[in-house]
Amino acid sequence: MMFLDRALSEEPKGLQETFSMWYSFMEEKIEFGHFVSILHTKSHCARVLLYCLKIARMAGLNDDETTVLCKASIFHDSRRHDDTRDVGHGARAAENFRRFSKKGLIPFDERVYLIMAYHDRDDELGKEKFREKGLAAAIPLYDIFKDADAIDRWRISPTALDVRYLRTDWGRSLVEYARNLVRETT
Ligand SMILES: [Fe+2]
Ligand SMILES: [Fe+2]
Questions:
Q1: Is the pTM of this model over 0.90?
Q2: How far is the CA of 134 from the centre of ligand 2 (A)?
Q3: How far is the CA of 8 from the centre of ligand 2 (A)?
Q4: Domain locations in the chain?
């Protein structure tokens, strides 16, 4: 599939199939914000999806947990107003996801909603929300998602990623992989 073909060819068949399914959903059904983004494109979301799937394998996540990460990957930057930090685009993306589920296009999941709504906020604020909603067990998914989103910061500049802020060993283990993937696909 397009620009990630080579990277995907190194992955197990199952991962490739899961990737294709969510990538097609994004391409066919999700319209991104009404400005021409350079940094928060569907290509960025596709790479985040790939990082999430790689981490899901490393972490031994089950299908249910993996699906949470996939849904967050394809929607999380779909409602940006610009390419700045744009705090609040997470909440808008979460609402966009809710709209899709109300239309019957995708099953709703509170964990996906929260990961997106707080992906542009302080970790502590996000984690508090998960605890409040009785979803503390999904906090590791929030950490994984934020790391997968962060390691794609190589696309912004060679100094845009500060690895000290990564939350998981899985995220840290993919830093060089992400650097190469961004170089190859942007
Ligand atoms: Fe974002
Ligand atoms: Fe992002």
A1: yes
A2: 26
A3: 20
A4: 13-185
